[in-house]
């Protein structure tokens, strides 16, 4: 990187940090935000069906047909960012020529689905693989599972993505966050014309970050920052050590195959991973809600709803719940303050959406908010905006 690009990067970082200091203050807990409306609501997310009885190479064709232009625009934004870091274009050449060699080592059916998405969209295979790898290392979020006084369980999440990936000085927004929002889709995965599970996805990404298996469990995944992180796991995979599971592939496999909350918890706790993570899992019976704190090898902690201790919800951002969050990224404290103010008597889709609409829980990285209810299998997703003043993360 030459000196002018280095200066530009430093200035961008300084601007973002300054914005965070100016706009990072918490606000009063929001109320009456649901049904979604106003300047923080960018639109609802369209539903699609993915038929698991179809061959993997064609099962995403319907989604990609509708979202091809948006996927191409997202990939182009990634290229611009990559070329700003490595101006020679060699990084993209490596992606286009090197990453396709990984496809054969990826597990079925995900490898064939990725190939099919590349064919249907015309996006080079390596770039589709890169799009799928991103979520192993760049997802910052807020997830919460809560139980009301009648034993009903609700699961909500803000999906935040795009940190340090191109700050738009004019719009005060993250470039990749803006490009991701049009790619958000709700998917009804069916087999034999019966729903197996539902999810909120980004078109072109075959893993799962947010999903519900109706009447059994709900599941979200948050990134866990750690030196032994996703970069290390991906590098090991490339070098031939492939005993770890891709996070997004594991969550999708669990949603498709686990037969109960306890079965899902066991798989999420014990499966070796490429990257550390937090799995936030909700069940269908009283007390079934937990945050599983994972290293790449094992679980450090399983933090569960415990009504006898007054813990009627569990809430996770991107820091171990027994440690204080990073001082410049404390979404946990305002989120818990609003949950406590809501009280167990009043928790619902409506009030959970209010919590997730309160700054800085809602921030410039927030692409969508999803609400799930396990007993009905209900999943609702809304695209979000965070008008200034708003924290960049």
From TrEMBL:
Keyword Oxidoreductase: no
Pfam families noted in UniProt: CBAH, NAAA-beta
Enzyme class: hydrolase
Domain Choloylglycine hydrolase/NAAA C-terminal: 141-331
Pathway annotation from the record: Lipid metabolism; sphingolipid metabolism; Sphingolipid metabolism
Keywords: Disulfide bond, Glycoprotein, Hydrolase, Lipid metabolism, Lysosome, Secreted, Signal, Sphingolipid metabolism
GO molecular function, one term: N-acylsphingosine amidohydrolase activity
Subcellular localization(s) per the UniProt record: Lysosome; Secreted
Reaction it catalyzes: an N-acylsphing-4-enine + H2O = sphing-4-enine + a fatty acid
Single GO biological process annotation from the record: sphingolipid metabolic process
Protein name per Swiss-Prot or TrEMBL: Acid ceramidase
Biological classification of the source: Eukaryota, Metazoa, Chordata, Craniata, Vertebrata
């Amino acid at each position: 990187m030459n000196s002018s690009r280095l200066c530009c990067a430093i200035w961008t970082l300084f601007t973002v940090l300054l914005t965070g200091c100016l706009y990072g203050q918490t606000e009063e807990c929001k109320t009456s935000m649901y049904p979604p409306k106003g300047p923080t609501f960018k639109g609802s997310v369209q539903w699609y069906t993915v038929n698991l009885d179809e061959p993997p190479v064609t099962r995403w064709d319907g989604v990609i047909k509708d979202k091809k232009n948006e996927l191409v625009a997202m990939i182009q934004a990634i290229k611009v960012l990559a070329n700003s870091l490595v101006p020679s274009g060699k990084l993209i050449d490596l992606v286009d020529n090197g990453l396709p060699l990984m496809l054969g080592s990826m597990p079925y059916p995900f490898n064939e689905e990725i190939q099919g998405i590349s064919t249907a969209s015309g996006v080079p295979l390596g770039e589709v693989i890169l799009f799928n790898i991103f979520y192993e290392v760049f997802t910052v979020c807020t997830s919460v599972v809560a139980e009301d006084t009648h034993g009903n369980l609700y699961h909500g999440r803000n999906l935040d993505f795009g940190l340090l990936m191109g700050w738009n000085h004019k719009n005060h927004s993250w470039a990749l966050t803006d490009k991701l929002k049009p790619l958000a889709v709700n998917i009804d995965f069916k087999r034999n014309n019966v729903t197996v599970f539902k999810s909120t996805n980004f078109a072109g990404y075959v893993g799962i970050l947010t999903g519900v298996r109706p009447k059994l469990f709900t599941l979200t995944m948050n990134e866990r920052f750690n030196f032994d992180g996703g970069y290390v796991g991906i590098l090991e995979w490339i070098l031939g050590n492939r005993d770890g599971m891709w996070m997004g592939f594991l969550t999708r496999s669990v949603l498709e195959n686990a037969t109960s909350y306890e079965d899902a918890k066991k798989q999420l706790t014990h499966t070796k991973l490429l990257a550390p993570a937090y799995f936030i899992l909700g069940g269908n019976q009283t007390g079934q809600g937990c945050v599983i704190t994972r290293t790449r090898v094992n679980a450090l902690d399983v933090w569960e709803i415990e009504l006898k201790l007054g813990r009627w919800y569990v809430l996770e951002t991107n820091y171990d719940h027994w440690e204080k969050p990073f001082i410049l990224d404390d979404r946990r404290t305002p989120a818990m303050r609003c949950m406590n103010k809501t009280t167990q008597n009043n928790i619902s889709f409506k009030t959970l959406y209010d919590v997730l609409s309160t700054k800085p829980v809602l921030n410039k990285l927030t692409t969508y908010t999803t609400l799930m209810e396990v007993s009905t299998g209900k999943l609702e997703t809304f695209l979000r905006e965070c008008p200034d003043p708003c924290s960049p993360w």
